[in-house]
Design a protein that fits this description.
232 residues, alpha/beta, Nucleotidyltransferase, domain 5, 2 domains, five-stranded mixed sheet
Length: 232
């Protein structure tokens, strides 16, 4: 299964191509951390990995993308690109959350077995809240992503304990431990990576229609009393 995967949800833009050649699986990846201008970087990254892989878009079997949670504009960049590529190529799109990809990155980095503990991906979302989702040792989601306060996230860790990853890991784990819970912060710098999304893609089901995942409304709002106007 030839896959093009990309992510723009948080503080990085990445793309990866996975294809079969010379009797084995090959992987080409491109990753760039940034805080804005995701759109400008995304298509450079896609072109880089497709050219490096020597793949035509017609040779793809599926397109994989993260749908959120993350920055409002950043999420839309990735989802819009996936929709456009699917329309142009006729290829199916598969999708998962940015937090699922982070959990997969963390699972690869862990050297010790998790046992019954879970991986909790937690990204600080501002205003004292975090995007949170938990996963089993094989990175199967145990529930949907949620927007929780630090206290709510700490209370959501079950009796089996958790390894926490992402920008919210330290503060949530500290609070959970103060309450007697088993919580260990690891890899606070982890961001989604298209390489891991490409590895997850074969087990994801095609999605149609493809929609972004927002756990809170955008900060920019129409001013009260404002009205759309058409030119005379």
């Amino acid at each position: 299964m030839n896959v093009l995967a990309f992510d723009t949800c948080l503080g990085a833009v990445s793309a990866a191509a996975r294809w079969c050649a010379a009797g084995g699986w090959q992987l080409r990846e491109s990753y760039y951390e940034l805080s804005a201008h995701h759109a400008e970087q995304l298509f450079h990254r896609i072109a880089e990995v497709m050219e490096g892989a020597g793949l035509e878009f017609s040779a793809l079997d599926r397109i994989a993308v993260t749908v959120g949670p993350g920055g409002f504009t950043a999420v839309r960049v990735g989802v819009s690109a996936a929709r456009a590529l699917a329309l142009a190529t006729g290829k199916p799109v598969v999708a998962t959350t940015s937090l699922a990809v982070m959990a997969h990155v963390a699972e690869e980095r862990l050297v010790e077995p998790l046992g019954t503990r879970q991986i909790m991906a937690a990204v600080y979302a501002g205003r004292g809240a975090h995007y949170v989702q938990s996963f089993t040792a094989d990175t199967t989601a145990t529930g949907e992503p949620r927007l929780l306060t630090t206290e709510e996230a700490a209370r959501s860790i079950d009796r089996h304990g958790a390894i926490l990853v992402g920008t919210g890991a330290v503060v949530i784990a500290d609070l959970a431990r103060k309450a007697g819970g088993d919580a260990e912060p690891r890899f606070p710098e982890v961001l989604p990576h298209a390489r891991n999304l490409a590895l997850l893609a074969p087990r994801l089901a095609p999605v149609s229609p493809l929609r972004p995942l927002y756990l809170r409304p955008p900060d920019a709002r129409l001013q009260e009393g404002a009205r759309a106007r058409t030119p005379p």
